[in-house]
Amino acid sequence: MSDPKFPKMLDYDLLKQELNDSHLESATDSSLNHLAPEALHFEDHPSTKVEGLTGSRLRSYAFAVLTRKEYSKSELVEKLALYAAHRDEVLKLVEELAKENYQSDQRMAETMLSSQKRKGKGPNRIKLALKSKKIDSSLIQEELKETDWNEQAYQLKVKKYGTQVEKEAKLKAKQIRFLMYRGFEMDAIIKAITRKEDDI
């Protein structure tokens, strides 16, 4: 089954002599360990990306991006600007996509709210997450108001520390710090750590 077109193995010594390249000595799989992971993904590598997109090509790329996941308006502008020839065209396109509801900060905000709540995050952490993506938290103001944050904080406290109400100051302070870090307001925190299991 041997084929002269495909040698059985590379002769590195011979290659080194022909190319006079001493670096071939380290051309093994293990030598790739020092490379950054992104260097091995050519589609994302700056040296191989397609630049200067305009018109229908830019629009097609925008649709391809949006089919993979939701983006805030700000994120989408920055993403497309990496590949577009003109930033002004990107701004105009993103506005158009938002009007046609292909891109929606409202939808993005609602998705983030749902995701963050599932992760046990309180309102303050959720607002910070929205701000990091330049999304106005007023878009989900009603949803934030309607959420029972007292219950959310209590369920998280129970999951982490159980139903017992701690009396020792040091342990109470630990629970308070944990819930504060998760983004809950102090009022909800105090109610959560003092709530007894049989309280309604």
Automatic annotation (TrEMBL):
InterPro entries according to UniProt: RecX_HTH_2nd, RecX_HTH_3rd, Regulatory_RecX, WH-like_DNA-bd_sf
Domain of life assignment: Bacteria
Organism: Acinetobacter albensis
Purpose: Modulates RecA activity.
Keywords tagged on the record: Cytoplasm
Ranges for domain RecX third three-helical: 150-193
Pfam families in the record: RecX_HTH2, RecX_HTH3
Primary location class: cytoplasm
Protein's UniProt name: Regulatory protein RecX
Localization of this protein: Cytoplasm
Lineage: Bacteria, Pseudomonadati, Pseudomonadota, Gammaproteobacteria, Moraxellales
Domain spans labelled RecX second three-helical: 104-142
Family of this protein: Belongs to the RecX family.
